[in-house]
Amino acid sequence: MNDAEELLRAALLKVPAGLAEHVVRVVDEASRLADVHGIDKQAVRIAALGHDLMRALNNERLLGIAADQSYATEDADRMDPILMHGPLAVAVLREQYKVLDADILGAVAYHTTAHAGMTPLQKIIFIADKIEPWKRARNDALDRVAELADTDLDAAMLVYLNMMVEQAVEVGWPLHPNTIAARNELLARKRASSGDRTNAERVDR
Ligand SMILES: [Fe+2]
Ligand SMILES: [Fe+2]
Q1: Other CB atoms within 10 Å distance of the CB of residue 78
Q2: How far is the centre of ligand 1, averaged over its atoms, from the C-alpha of 88 (Å)?
Q3: Predicted local confidence at residue 13, as pLDDT
């Protein structure tokens, strides 16, 4: 265990028990996916341990920290400050936990909204956070995401992001521009690889 991992494990003792248990389940799920996809397990563990460092903070605190960090908020961030608990944790991980690896920091930053150009490690953290057993037990639709994640991280990401878009429309949540960019990128890659010409059938323009 390196210093950052040790410090992050110790920090878990200070967050609400339910959150700490979620983080441990994400560490387990992400470690399993790291094995399947041949990704560095220590990096995956550190990212999983740090991903929800700021999850317990309320909206007011998140907005305050965003202002302190001069974080460039989007409309969606201001409407739902919880969307910032990933990106705002990056400075804390760097300064207090000495986590300097850009791949790990990106995984933490992008784990809620997703982001274009995500690496395999970042996709593993994003997906593990969504398919950990407690969440799967409450939403059967996540089984499909989990199934795909074993063979094709991009396909799992796309199915999950489609679900996110549908839910946002249904519930009235804003869609973060990073989510739209991530989904468009995955769709473009899927179309390029399958020779899909769906666009030719569009009738709205
Ligand atoms: Fe989170
Ligand atoms: Fe999480």
Answers
A1: 14
A2: 11
A3: 94
Ligand 2 centroid–CA 202 distance in Å is 37
- Å from CA of 50 to ligand 2 middle: 9
Q: Which of the 8 DSSP states describes residue 151?
A: T
How far lies 44's CA from each of 37, 176, 185, in Å?
A: 11, 25, 23
Residues 6+ apart with CB under 8 A from 41: 31, 34, 35
**pLDDT digit string, tens, across residues 43-75:** 999 999 999 999 999 999 999 999 999 999 999
Q: What is the number of other CB atoms lying within 10 angstroms of the CB of residue 9?
A: 16
Q: How far apart are CA 86 and CA 122, in angstroms?
A: 12
Residue ranges near ligand 1 (ion) with Cβ within 5 Å: 52, 55
Please give the distance, rounded to the nearest whole angstrom, from the Cα atom of residue 38 to the centre of ligand 1: 24
99 Cα–ligand 1 center, Å: 18
Kindly list the structural domains of the chain, giving each domain's residue range(s) and its CATH number in brackets, ordered by start. Answer: 3-195 (1.10.3210.10)
Structure-token match 């994003």, residue found: 126
Of the candidates 87, 52, 40, the residue with the CA atom closest to the CA atom of residue 66? 87
Cα of 115 to ligand 1 centre, how many Å?
A: 14
CA 130, 156, 180, 169 torsion-angle sign = negative
Predicted TM-score of the model (pTM) = 0.95
Ligand closest to 109 (CA) is 1
